[in-house]
Design goal:
By secondary structure, the chain is mostly helical. It is built from three helices and no strands. The longest helix is centred in the last third of the chain and has 36 residues.
Length: 133
């Protein structure tokens, strides 16, 4: 049985966690959108990015069955594991894109600051295209 004090603390932490999760959506979408080289890749990629992100909602409905209540350990462990996996994927993506940028800098030289690059044909395969890390 939970006391009123621990319920208040848990409610406050749920509010904090929710605000942090939803605050990351705009930044994540902007980051993904800016790393797709042209409009076609961006349109398809952002649709996939959003669709894959919504799988968590589908899975989440199975993570917390009423039979596990009121503690819901399995659901909390699964949510923590998924959050950890997402953090690892994002960090890996950062280092991979940074390595691609360094490789292009060595091979083609650094791009000129403010120079517009026509990405309509070759998109992010252009030698002067740099990913946002």
């Amino acid at each position: 049985n939970l006391s009123d004090d621990s319920l208040k603390a848990k409610y406050a932490l749920v509010c904090l966690a929710t605000s942090c999760v939803y605050a990351s959506f705009p930044a994540g979408h902007a980051w993904a959108a800016n790393n797709f080289g042209n409009e076609t890749k961006r349109a398809i990629g952002m649709g996939l990015f959003t669709a894959l992100g919504n799988f968590g909602s589908i899975g989440g409905s199975f993570f917390y069955p009423t039979t596990d209540g009121p503690i819901y350990r399995k659901g909390h462990y699964l949510s923590f594991g998924m959050s950890l996996a997402a953090a690892i994927v994002a960090l890996s993506n950062h280092f991979i894109l940074r390595a691609v940028n360094k490789h292009r800098d060595k091979k083609y030289g650094k791009p000129v600051e403010g120079l517009a690059i026509d990405v309509t044909e070759d998109a992010d395969n252009l030698p002067m295209f740099r990913f946002i890390t």
